[in-house]
From TrEMBL:
PANTHER family: ANTIPORTER SUBUNIT MNHC2-RELATED. The chain crosses the membrane at residues 6-25, 37-57, 69-92. This is NADH-quinone oxidoreductase subunit K. Keywords: Cell membrane, Membrane, Oxidoreductase, Transmembrane, Transmembrane helix. It is a multi-pass membrane protein. InterPro entries: CPA3_antiporter_subunitC, NUOK/Mnh_C1-like. Its EC number is 1.6.5.9. It comes from the Bacteria. Belongs to the CPA3 antiporters (TC 2.A.63) subunit C family. It holds the Pfam family Oxidored_q2.
């Protein structure tokens, strides 16, 4: 059931990127899609267990633990996604100075020779 919600989040973001005409809505849709992808990756990586990988005093791990490597990769993906989103928002701010609207059709119409 949780996988279905995560896949629905990814699809909502994907269709938002395809069908929205406003640049800000496209950026937000991309953020929603990346959140869904990160949630799916965390969901798949945590199937082994939910316990932190701390070894007991006797050196024997008694329960299944979550792998820490995918968690580190996801933290890196979150930081990179945040920086890309910030860069896109700066680009949209620069574009908004020249155009009164952020609709793609209007921007293309104004910038076509």
């Amino acid at each position: 059931m949780l996988e279905a919600f995560v896949v629905a989040t990814i699809l909502c973001g994907f269709f938002g990127i395809l069908f929205k005409k406003n640049l800000l809505m496209k950026i937000f849709s991309m953020d929603i899609m990346s959140t869904g992808v990160i949630a799916y990756y965390v969901f798949v990586a945590s199937r082994g267990g939910f316990v932190t990988p701390i070894v007991a005093a006797d050196g024997v791990q008694k329960v299944a633990y979550a792998d820490p490597v995918p968690q580190a990769v996801i933290l890196t993906a979150i930081v990179i996604g945040f920086s890309i989103q910030a860069l896109m928002l700066v680009g949209v701010m620069k574009l908004a100075r020249d155009n009164p609207t952020l609709e793609i059709t209007e921007i293309e119409k104004n910038n076509t020779p």
